[in-house]
Amino acid sequence: MDKKFWVGGYSPDGGGASLGIRAVEISNGVLRDLGLAHHADSPSWIATHPKLPVIYAALEPRGEVAAYAIIDYDRLELLGKPVPAGDLVCHLTVAGSAGPLIASCYGDGRVLAFPVNPDGSLAKPAVAPASKDPFAVPGHDARASRSHQSTVLRSGRIITTDLGHDSLRVWDLDAGELRLRQQIALRKGDGPRHLVEHPSGLIYVVTEHGAEVVALQADLTGIYREVSRTGLGEAIFAGEHFPAEISLDPNTNRLYVGVRGARVVVVLGLNAGRPLVLGSAPCEGEWPRHHLQVGSSLLVANQLSNTIQVLGMDRQDGLPSKRLGSLAIDSPTCIAAQVAGR
């Protein structure tokens, strides 16, 4: 069965060569470029609305978020003007079918909740309280807040990462506004980037600077604490290699982490919730910024080699060790599945 995707990337304003949002298709392991769906300046992250025929793009260097109506599988139309978000807005999450769009801004640390109008366009956002560095030292220069990702938890709460403050924050969503429930401090220098939630309730956070996967677990009151941390293998070194995306296998028994600089995807099994490295496989390109599992294949967006690789997964250990195909795409940074029926 053919499956279609939206691909975002960096344009010249972000140091890349992308022209905007492209549509691609995979069939029998073969990727095909369906063309430019809409011109955009560095749509580095794309989020799809779960109900409406609308997608959202973080126009990172512009500090804006754009909404697009889906006209066809290979064509988009701008839904109103792009709206201001914050410096280097880098990630978007739609908080459910009737929830707001959560935006994370790397440049100034802002986290915003944009109300979504009935047609999918965006209203004026509510800005969450600024992060407070848990490692701040009086008399020393303040460290910059670097918001990087938001995730909707099964509880309905929102969790966000702050790569600059080495912390995560858990929020209650109250009448469209984010109310801080808990700040979780990791180790100074970890640089938490992205995370996934397991059906068990465990949260797995990949650290960009620490090159580890940190597991968090909530107690009976819903307060999260660190329960384990796992390195990504003997060949992955903090400060030299930089983990990017972390994903959970649909069978929920493996984690996949793309590692920039090392040119690999690391696979971790889950043993009673604790990650254990099973091995790694080449990503067949440079700077694997994002990846997406599609059936028994892994699509890897190799930003600096301008390709999306299709890697086949081994049935036994899950390693993406079979090269099935490659598609030339300028500066790809995000792959988002199109929703069937749109």
Automatic annotation (TrEMBL):
Q: Which domain of life is it from?
A: Bacteria
Q: Which family does it belong to?
A: Belongs to the cycloisomerase 2 family.
**Known PANTHER family for this protein?**
6-PHOSPHOGLUCONOLACTONASE, 6-PHOSPHOGLUCONOLACTONASE-RELATED
Put simply, this protein is called Beta-propeller fold lactonase family protein
Organismal lineage = Bacteria, Bacillati, Actinomycetota, Actinomycetes, Micrococcales
